[in-house]
Amino acid sequence: MDSWVLKVAAIFLLLVGETVSIFIEVILARRYAFTQPFWNLFLKGFLVIALASAFLIAGYMLGFRSFKNIWVVSVISLTTILIAEPIIDYLVFRQMPTAGALIGLILAATGFVFAVFYK
């Protein structure tokens, strides 16, 4: 495979893995807050998180091979968390981010661009 295909695949796998993990965590937290049974929710969430973890493992493996730098892969993963978490939190809980969270989002996106495209 071409290097750029591996890079795109790694980024995609990391984005999906992190986003699915965050989404299920937030959804289960909300459902549990409204007194749904703990173990029922926990076991469903555990299965989804296991699948998301497979995406993350594959993303890290392909990412390290294609970028040749674990720091770039870590930045992609962390930036996905920093971007996806506030969006999902807003969509699920309808809470607006604070000014500090918004600044963090902007800095995370900037860091992602520099880590991926600047050598």
The domain tally reads 1
- Average pLDDT number: 89
Low-confidence stretches: none
Question: End-to-end span in angstroms?
Answer: 22 Å
Q: Which percent range describes the beta-strand content?
A: under 5%
What pattern of helices and strands is seen along the backbone? HHHH
Q: What is the percent of helical residues? A: over 70%
Helix count equals 4
- Rg calc: 16 Å
Shape: flat
The tally of beta strands, per DSSP, is 0
Biggest β-sheet description: none
Structural class by helix and strand composition: mainly alpha
How would you describe what is shown here?
The protein is mostly helical. It has one domain (3-117). It has helices at 3-33, 38-67, 70-93, 99-117. Helix 1 runs parallel beside helix 3 (70-93).
Structure summary:
Helix content is 87%, strand content 0%. The chain is mainly α and 119 residues long. The relative contact order is 0.15.
Secondary-structure blueprint:
Blueprint: H1 3-33, H2 38-67, H3 70-93, H4 99-117
Helix pairs in contact: 1-2, 1-3, 2-3, 3-4
List key phrases describing it:
119 residues, mainly alpha, 4 helices, flat
